[in-house]
Write a sequence for this structure.
């Protein structure tokens, strides 16, 4: 077997809808061995189209070791734009192990006519921005991120998550909804109305999967406290799954594209 015909091993750092779409598209390719890496945040992840490994690598050194041990030919960082630690680890591990890296990064949403957005640099700032008067607040954040809201127990919080929030938020009034997205604008509109929500706290995640709540907030004229995106390492990046496929086809594995 020649060098170029050798099976190329791709590691996709995932946990997002895009990582899922990407691995579904790559699953049928010959001469590609794709592994999807998940942090292990959800108890029962959805079935995936490619083999999955779960759990942290042990920092950038651990990830670099994995890249070398598994003879990975290309690393795709398709994690969430707020997952800054793993993206930083990916950048340094790729450098240490000399593995080509491409980041798949969703462009942020931009404010549209009718949006009432307040930017918050940190979760603590978002807590502050809610103010002293009691409000009914939809926390559209991860389970790990809501703990600081315990500092403002006067509000009623609505929390939606895939797995139950355990331990629950240390406040007297919290409503928990367990559900797995994506959610449509209609579903989010109904949720916000049902719980008489007055304010939303959300990340500027970009993409379609979680945009419904912002459309619903616009229609209901609700203010949204939007958490600022974290700084991410400067690495080659693209915005779409199609562009990742093109990069893999032409830059990394020219012989693997189906029918090419
Ligand atoms: P993070 O703060 O950047 O990562 C914390 C640690 O979790 C990393 O240092 C790494 O541990 C481990 N980790 C994260 N993503 C991993 C992956 N895909 N595979 C293996 N280990 C991973 O990220 P996070 O906020 O915990 O997010 C975790 C996962 O949830 C990511 O895959 C992300 O795409 C997804 N997600 C995050 C958000 C969000 O807003 N943060 C939203 C939706 C989905 P080691 O250092 O030990 O390797």
């Amino acid at each position: 077997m020649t060098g170029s015909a050798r099976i190329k091993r791709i590691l996709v750092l995932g946990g997002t809808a895009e990582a899922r779409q990407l691995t579904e598209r790559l699953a049928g390719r010959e001469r590609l061995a794709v592994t999807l890496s998940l942090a292990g945040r959800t108890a029962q992840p959805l079935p995936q189209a490619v083999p999955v490994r779960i759990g942290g690598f042990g920092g950038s050194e651990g990830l670099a070791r994995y890249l070398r041990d598994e003879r990975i030919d290309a690393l795709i960082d398709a994690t969430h734009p707020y997952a800054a630690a793993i993206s930083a680890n990916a950048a340094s591990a790729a450098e240490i192990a000399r593995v080509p890296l491409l980041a798949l990064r969703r462009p942020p949403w931009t404010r549209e006519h009718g949006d009432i957005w307040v930017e918050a640099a940190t979760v603590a700032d978002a807590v502050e921005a809610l103010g002293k008067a009691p409000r009914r607040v939809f926390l559209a954040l991860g389970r790990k991120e809501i703990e600081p809201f315990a500092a403002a127990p006067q509000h009623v919080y609505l929390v939606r998550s895939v797995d139950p929030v355990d331990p629950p938020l240390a406040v007297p009034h919290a409503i928990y909804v367990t559900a797995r997205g994506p959610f449509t604008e209609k579903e989010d509109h109904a949720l916000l109305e049902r719980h008489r929500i007055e304010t939303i706290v959300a990340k500027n995640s970009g993409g379609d999967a979680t945009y419904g709540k912002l459309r619903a907030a616009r229609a209901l004229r609700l203010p949204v406290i939007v958490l600022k995106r974290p700084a991410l390492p400067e690495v080659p990046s693209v915005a779409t799954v199609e562009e990742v496929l093109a990069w893999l086809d032409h830059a990394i594995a020219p012989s693997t594209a189906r029918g090419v």
